[in-house]
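quick one, 189 residues, struct below
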Amino acid sequence: MKFVLIAAVFILFSGITNADPKQRMIEIEMKPLGEASSRALPIVRFPVVEEFSGWIREKSQLSAYESFIQKMVKTYSDASNVDELANLWDSRSFPEIQKMLSSDAKIFDQNSSYYKRIQNSRVLGVVIYGNYEIIFVSHKLTDDESRNRYYPVWVRDDSRVLSNEIGNDVFFQYIINKLQDDLFERWSM
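---
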């Protein structure tokens, strides 16, 4: 039986707004595709951090999420070879990244070129999932062009590294395949 996201995403919040990111809980009601039901529906709850404001390069104080994105963009932009990216990746994921980026010089060059084009970045929101965070970011490439990306990050002892280890996880796949567009739209307003 297929399940889909039902109409609305509900947010629990205090109504007070300020410039600091806030952690909240998002609830998603699930129901079988095409079925109208008056019965209780399963609810999936997951914590998010939202209400980030401003572009990273224009801020004097950065959150831990923003600092990580800033470090990642700078490291990818400045790297002259794949090995210089090792400190951004968890040790379980890096060998595959290293193999992929080393397999063809064009792949590494295209990747580097993309990050060099980034003029500024803005963290839109973060989904917290166990020891992982999925950081949703808007990268400004030109005055007229931005690209939305998400980065799966593994957190260990308050240290953040990129990780592909969560890639086959069912909940991660659900967020990326079913909720990504809704989250980007919600956080881009």
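The mean pLDDT is 82.
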